[in-house]
Design goal:
The protein has 299 residues and is α/β, with parallel strands linked by helices. The chain has one domain: Arginase, Chain A (3-Layer(aba) Sandwich). 41% of the residues lie in helices and 12% in strands. The protein contains ten helices and eight strands. An eight-stranded parallel beta sheet has the order 2-1-3-8-7-4-5-6, sandwiched between helices. Helix 1 crosses helix 10 and helix 5 packs across helix 6. It is globular and about 45 Å long. The chain starts with a strand and ends with a helix. Pfam families: Hist_deacetyl. InterPro entries: HDAC_classIV, HDACs, His_deacetylse_dom, His_deacetylse_dom_sf, Ureohydrolase_dom_sf.
C-alpha cells in the first residue's frame, strides 16, 4: 500500500503544546520498523498549488497562512503558532491527501500519514486544522473528473464541522460524522448524517451504532471513492475525547470501516485526523493499527 509522507510534516511548536506534532515522524518510523509499509511505497508530496487551495479556501485566508499575515483573532482560533514551517507542512499535508486519493483510485487503497483536518473552514482554521485537506482533495478530484460521488467517513471524536459546512449543498458528497455529542465543536453544522454519542460510550454500543450507520449509508449512496478519517481520540485514555473505547475497540472500529468499504469495491483513502493519547508512543501505536488492518485488504 502506498502512502504520502514527507519529513516536513513536522513543524516545531512549543514542547508543552497538547498537539502531538511528533506523531507524523513517529508513525512513519514505526510503520517502517514494523514492516507494515515498505520504503518504496512512501511517496513524498510537493506543496499544494495555490490554485487548488482556492477551490475551498479564500484568497485572504490562504495568503494569510502562507505569508504569516493572519490577524490576531484568526491566529488564536487556529490553536497553533504560525511559522513558515507550519505553512509548509500544511501545504504538504493537503497535497499528500490529493496524492493518496489518486493512488487509491489506481490501487484500491492508499493513505496519508497526516490529514483529516476537518475543522478548517474556507476563511479560517480552528482546532489545530489549518487547511481542509479532504475538502480540497474532493474539489480537485471532481473538477478533474477523477471521481464524482464521494463519501467521507469521519470517526474523529470531534464533529467534522468544516467539512460539513463546505459540502452542505453538494449532493455528490456524503459527509458522515460519528462523534461525541457534548464535545467540541459546540456549534455543529449538519453533515449528511451525524451521530452524536453520549460521554462514556464504550466499545459495544459504539460499534453497533457505527455498523448500522454504514449499512444505511451504503444502501442509499454509491461512492466512487471514500475518505476515512480514523481519529484515535474516541479512546478512553484520550485527553480530549470523553468517549470510552478500548484500544481493541478502536481496532475493531477500523476493521469495520475498512471491511465495509472494501466489500463494496470502493477505493479508500486513509487519514489520521486527531488523537491526544497520554504519550506519543501510545498515539503512534494507535494510529498504526489502521494501517496494519489495511494491509490485509491490499492485493
Amino acid at each position: 500500500m502506498r502512502v504520502s509522507y514527507a519529513p516536513s510534516y513536522y513543524a516545531p511548536i512549543p514542547d508543552d503544546h497538547i498537539f502531538p506534532m511528533g506523531k507524523f515522524t513517529g508513525l512513519h518510523r514505526y510503520l517502517l520498523d514494523e514492516e507494515i509499509i515498505a520504503p518504496g511505497n512512501i511517496v513524498a508530496p510537493s506543496p499544494v498549488d495555490m490554485t487548488n487551495l482556492l477551490t475551498v479556501h479564500t484568497n485572504n485566508y490562504a495568503k494569510g497562512i502562507l505569508e504569516g499575515t493572519l490577524d490576531r483573532k484568526k491566529s488564536r482560533r487556529l490553536g497553533l503558532p504560525w511559522s513558515r514551517r507550519l505553512a509548509l507542512r500544511s501545504r504538504l499535508a493537503v497535497q499528500g491527501t490529493i496524492n493518496a486519493a489518486l493512488m487509491a483510485l489506481e490501487d484500491g487503497m492508499a493513505g496519508n500519514l497526516a490529514g483529516g483536518t476537518h475543522h478548517a473552514m474556507p476563511d479560517f482554521g480552528e482546532g489545530f486544522c489549518v487547511f481542509n485537506d479532504v475538502a480540497v482533495a474532493v474539489k480537485v478530484l471532481q473538477q478533474s473528473m477523477w471521481a464524482s460521488n464521494i463519501l467521507i467517513i469521519d470517526c474523529d471524536v470531534h464533529q467534522g464541522n468544516g467539512t460539513a459546512e463546505i459540502f452542505k449543498n453538494n449532493a455528490e458528497v456524503f459527509t458522515f460524522s460519528i462523534h461525541g455529542a457534548n464535545n467540541y465543536p459546540f456549534k455543529k453544522p449538519p453533515s449528511s448524517l451525524d451521530i452524536g454519542l453520549p460521554d462514556g460510550t464504550e466499545d459495544k454500543d459504539y460499534l453497533q451504532v457505527l455498523g448500522e450507520a454504514l449499512h444505511k449509508i451504503f444502501t442509499q449512496f454509491h461512492p466512487d471513492l471514500t475518505f476515512y478519517l480514523g481519529g484515535i481520540d474516541p479512546l478512553e485514555t484520550d485527553q480530549l475525547g470523553r468517549l470510552s473505547l478500548s484500544i481493541d475497540g478502536l481496532k475493531r472500529r477500523d476493521e469495520l470501516v475498512i471491511r465495509k468499504v472494501k466489500s463494496h469495491d470502493v477505493p479508500l483513502v486513509l487519514l489520521l485526523s486527531g488523537g491526544y493519547a497520554p504519550t506519543l508512543k501510545e498515539t503512534v501505536e494507535a494510529h498504526a493499527q489502521m494501517y496494519g488492518i489495511a494491509q490485509k485488504y491490499c492485493y
